[in-house]
Specification:
Chain A: One of its GO terms (biological process) is protein transport. The complex is a heterodimer of chains A (about 210) and B (about 10). By secondary structure, chain A is an all-alpha fold. Chain A has helices at about 5-25, 35-45, 60-80, 95-110, 115-130, 130-140, 145-175, 180-200; strands spanning about 145, 175, 210. The N and C termini of chain B lie far apart (about 20 Å). In chain B, about 20% of the residues are buried. The chains are: A mainly alpha (about 210), B mainly beta (about 10).
């Protein structure tokens, strides 16, 4: 564990909490992509299957349980409790176009061809692109509430901080995982346009609105 | 240096 990794995990946790607070306080999931949230739930379940096979640390186990539970809580709020506020007309991204290629890629490029390892790799690839339906929704509506922007910023920062963690681990421990690094770089690049808007608009107190 | 999986990460 190093400072970048810890900051990344806390940023990830903050993102999830911000999203739950936004939905709970406004009693609405408007502006949030249920498709992205489904993909995140798939990511956590397929990655954290090792909860039942390998014990790493109490921290690791607790965080995994928090991520899985909170993603299902989010889905429950969006698709059951506040279903009426869900913006499904704008949330029209076809997730099979992400799920299938990621699965095929995981079958082809993985560290070892075993069910758990392929599913772990699938989750890494899928996480890299899971935010696309959300970014697509923001681009369709042309704006995002400020708390949604904070959520996206925290979620994007998490993998960017992991990139620093991987650079650190490469030098400090000689550890590197090309699959995670490659996917993490793509994941971070996808947020760059959003980061730019967040820094130039939201941090200056303006609403995140896309140029027409 | 050896390639390892980041299974200790989240």
């Amino acid at each position: 564990m190093n400072i970048f990794r810890l900051a990344g995990d806390l940023s990830h946790l903050l993102a999830i909490i911000l999203l739950l607070i936004k939905i709970w306080k406004t009693r609405s999931c408007a502006g949030i992509s249920g498709k992205s949230q489904i993909l995140f739930a798939v990511v956590y379940v397929s990655r954290y299957l090792d909860l039942v096979t390998t014990f790493i640390s109490l921290y690791n186990t607790l965080m995994k349980l928090v991520f899985i539970t909170s993603s299902f809580a989010t889905l429950y709020l969006m698709y059951v409790k506040f279903k009426a506020t869900y913006d499904h007309n704008h949330d029209s991204f076809r997730i099979e176009f992400l799920l299938l290629p990621c699965f095929v890629l995981a079958l082809l490029i993985n560290a070892s061809f075993t069910p758990l390892e392929v599913l772990w790799t699938f989750s890494i690839y899928l996480e890299a692109v899971a935010i696309l339906p959300q970014l697509f929704l923001v681009s369709k509506t042309g704006e995002a509430e400020s708390i949604t922007s904070h959520y996206l910023f925290a979620l994007g920062s998490y993998r960017a901080l992991y990139l620093l963690n991987w650079i650190y681990r490469y030098y400090a421990e000689g550890h590197y995982d090309l699959i995670a690094i490659f996917a993490g770089a793509i994941q971070t690049i996808l947020y760059c346009d959003f980061f730019y808007l967040y820094i130039t608009k939201v941090l200056k107190g303006k609403k995140l609105q896309l140029p027409a | 240096l050896k390639h390892q999986n980041s299974h200790d990460e989240l």
